Amino acid sequence: MFLFDQTPPAAAGKTSSPLGRAQAGFRGRIHAIEVTDADCGLHPDELERRLIELGFVEGASVEILHEGMFGRDPIAVRVNHATIALRRREAMAILVT
Amino acid sequence: MSGAGACNCALVGTPNSGKTALFNALTGSRQKVANYPGVTVERKAGALTTPAGLSVKVVDLPGTYSLRARSPDEEVTRDVVLGRLQSEPPPDVILCVADATNLRLSLRLVLELKRVGRPLMLVLNMFDIAKRRGVEIDIARMAAELGVPVVTAIAIRKGGTEEVLRRLDELAADHAHVRQASSWQAPTSTELRAAQREADAIIRSSVKMPVKPDNLTTRLDAVLLHPVAGLIILFVILFVMFQAVFAWAQPLMSTISLGFDWIGAEVHAALPPGLLQSFIEHGVISGVGSVIVFLPQILTLFLFILLLEDLGYMARAAFLMDRIMGGAGLHGRAFIPLLSSFACAIPGIMATRVIDNKRDRLTTILVAPLMTCSARIPVYTLIIGAFIPAHQIWGWANLQGLVMFGLYAAGIFSALGVSFLFKFFFWRDDPSPPFMLELPDYKLPRVKSVALGLYTRAKAFLTRAGTTIFSMMVLIWFLASFPRPPAGAAGPAINYSLAAAIGRFMEPVLKPIGFNWQIDVALVPGMAAREVAVAALGTVYSIQGGNEAAQQIGHVLAGQWSLATALALLAWYIFAPQCASTLAVIRRETGSWKWMAVTFGYMMVLAYVAAFATYHIAVALGAG
User: I need a labelling partner for B337 at 20 to 30 A (CA). Which of B4, B97, B203, B205 fits?
Assistant: First the structure.
């Protein structure tokens, strides 16, 4: 069975900002996954599930390794020990501290 | 267990887990590739015998992060694992394959697979790499916490799968693993999150990652994914690839060509003059030979694609190209299918199944045939060789190679343009779907797996040369030889044949774009496969010209066509939908005649317009 541990966001006091706005070289931890952008071509819940399936969950460490040439997009993100490429628009749903 | 002693085993795993390498190691040569009924997802099945003598049927399922299927490929994985496919027995045992250096996402998948209620085992593949990097895994603890057996494997080493086989026996024999009813349901985001946390907790307690992570991939990526340098390197790789297709393959091609010349001459000498001699010499040997000559070029192209794929570079190329292709309404993931389309549009179109969004997939399918496939190479090479001088320019580039590069570029830019127009007219208002892709660590390609890939491609090409192309050549020879000219007729015999009649029938339509009736005749069987047109031209001109013209088809063309006609034919071949198999695959993959008709229609219009413009501009410039 799955564990349903609903740890409340622990980083009280720290301000979180979307990974989609961070610069290359940024290092931090995921604070929350919140899909707000409705203009994504995917149902928000579906986008959230896909992000989780690629390892973007609260508490995971992230680092922006590389960016594309145009509009510094897409970005390559180290999530714990794997590297995931995604666009900044989707990365807006990943709140990091 | 189903049946007497037979056991069905399904291989499941995330993309890049080395699942196919493990499958190859487990089944060796005892494998069969076919399609699942109704869908074109490749079904790779094989057999093995365990040390205890149990015979096991293994299927290698498409890679996935979850059983929540999002693409046709992943649907197959889900349906086979859940036993929902009529044609496929439900698996008695599931092997979940994971990259031992990258376990997070795989462990979450294992937790999901547990719910399916079938005997399950986790295989930690690439264990040697993990060890070398200093990853320490407490196997017993991981197995206890996951609640499933865990074994290690090194798929690429001899004997590296012994442990898997041994445990497979235990798993099959162990009655504790009696099948339970599946309680699997598509997990919600809350469940996924909880499962990933559980997986992370297991990793924390049973895996010790090295303090210093793998730096080679990071260091390579600093250059290869650099915003500017990365793109330049990508284009240099593509340029080298196309130069290699011409330069490297040449000696082998000359050898093959000489071989066929020799066989033709032997046959000519051995057989009495007449129909049989003409059939064997012109129909069979010069026809099939003129196509087989291109095998070295096609294999060179595939060699590059296979190497880049195994190296882990293809995902990087998608990353680099995403924004550029996005401007044209294509998905970054479309880069891989489109690059494969340089070899052949058919595997390219089938590779679009990794694109989960329907609209993106459709756009990619529609433009894939514009990528210059290897079947165009014979046509291009023939015409370029006959009409474009082999000058060196700028001291290093070859004019012929440059024209070829230009033809490839024309294909690429027209594909981007067409996809932009599709996006504009059909789905301008839809937001574009996300691009998310794992970038695997770089790995040195294995000689064995690349060789296996090349062998499969060579076999497919030669089979085609032996069946489709051969039968088309027989047909062309027949059309070009019958009816025989009346006694005492003047001029070449072919002028009285059915082929000439067909060519003349098409002439009014194709004359405005500079084609003569011999080209028209060659275009008809060219629908079966583009390269057949070359062989057909060879047959038509060799029957027309007699024996002295039999082999040097390029010289004959140079004497018979104007430069404008040659250029118009090149332009035609960039666009023309000259491949019945591609159209059939589009029909199958889109599930509709409509999209097949759309593809055929737009390509035909483009081809005609481009050839028309090329011809008339060339004539105006004095090349007529």
Answer: B97
- pLDDT number for residue B545: 59
Nearest residue to B415 via CA among B353, B497, B348: B348
- For B371, list phi and psi in degrees, rounded to 5: -70, 140
Domains and CATH numbers, chain A: 17-96 (2.30.30.90)
Separation in Å, CA of A89 to nearest CA in chain B: 8
- Output the CA torsion sign for B588, B592, B593, B596: negative
Contacts of B321 in chain A (CB under 8 A): none
> What is the ipTM, given to two decimal places?
0.85
- Which of A54, A65, A69 is nearest residue B228 as measured by Cβ atoms? A69
Nearest partner of B231 among A26, A68, A75, A10, judged by Cα: A68
Q: Is pLDDT above 50 for B421?
A: yes
Chain A residues with CB-CB distance to B432 below 8 A: 41
Chain segment B130-150, per-residue pLDDT in tens: 888 888 999 999 999 999 999
User: Chain B 549-608, CB below 8 Å of chain A: which residues?
Assistant: none
Q: Do B436 and A42 touch (CB under 8 A)?
A: no
- Rounded Cα–Cα distance for residues B473 and B282 (Å): 9
Instruction: Answer for the pair A74, B319: CB distance below 8 angstroms, yes or no.
Output: yes
Q: Report the distance separating Cα B399 and Cα A16, nearest Å.
A: 57
Distance (Å, rounded) from C-alpha B609 to C-alpha A14?
62
Asked whether residue B564 carries a pLDDT value surpassing 70, the answer given is yes
Work out the average pLDDT over A12-33. 86
How many beta-carbon pairs below 8 A join chains A and B? 144
Q: Which residues contact B26 (CB under 8 A, 6 or more apart)?
A: B46, B48, B58, B161, B164, B165
Query: How many other C-beta atoms lie within 10 A of the C-beta of residue B384?
Result: 22
What pTM, to 2 d.p., does this model score? 0.79
Most confident among B41-45, B216-220, B284-288, B472-476 (mean pLDDT): B216-220
Radius of gyration of chain A (CA): 13
**Assigned fold of B6-208:** Rossmann fold (3.40.50)
With b meaning 16 or more CB within 10 Å and e meaning fewer, what string describes A43-76? eeebbbbbbbbbbbbbebebbbbbbbeeeebbbb
Determine the average pLDDT of the residues in B266-295.
78
Nearest to B65 among A54, A65, A71 (CB): A54
| β-pair type (B207-208, B136-137) | antiparallel
**Nearest Cα residue in chain B from A86:** B436
Q: How far is CA A70 from the centre of its chain?
A: 20
User: Three-class SS string for B21-48?
Assistant: HHHHHHHCCCEEEEECCCCCCEEEEEEE
C-alpha neighbours within 13 Å on the C-beta side of residue A83: 22
Domain residue spans of chain B: 6-208, 232-245+298-426, 253-290+455-561
Which B-chain residues 302-361 have CB contacts (< 8 A) with chain A?
Answer: 315, 318-320, 322-324, 332, 357
